[in-house]
Design goal:
mainly alpha, 2 domains, transmembrane helix, transmembrane, DUF2304, coiled coil
Amino acid sequence: MIVFVGIALAILILVVVLWMLLTRRLREKYAVLWLIIAVSVLIVGLFPGLLAGLTAFLGVQVPSNLLFATAILLLLGVSLHLSWELSQVEEETRRLAEESAILRTQLDRLESRTSRLEGQRPADDVD
């Protein structure tokens, strides 16, 4: 029964990720990770003996320990990647705020210069 749940979960993940890609709700660089997870779960679901063989090969006592260790490493990787992305976004936001402040200052200078020039214009030249 658990094998069918794993297979169903993998297929559900594949369908949802592909749907999100097609509707542009998920970017490709994030979808790759989810597709790898879904395919891995599907392979383990289709070939449950593979997990036992991998557990014996790596010297892990129980297959569930290998699954938990893999999940923890995966979560650490996702967390590190998202932290890196957040740092990139913060840097970009800071840069845009600085550029916006510079542009606002330039606009204020131009507006004050324009109003001064308009004030110096003779009254008969005004359209």
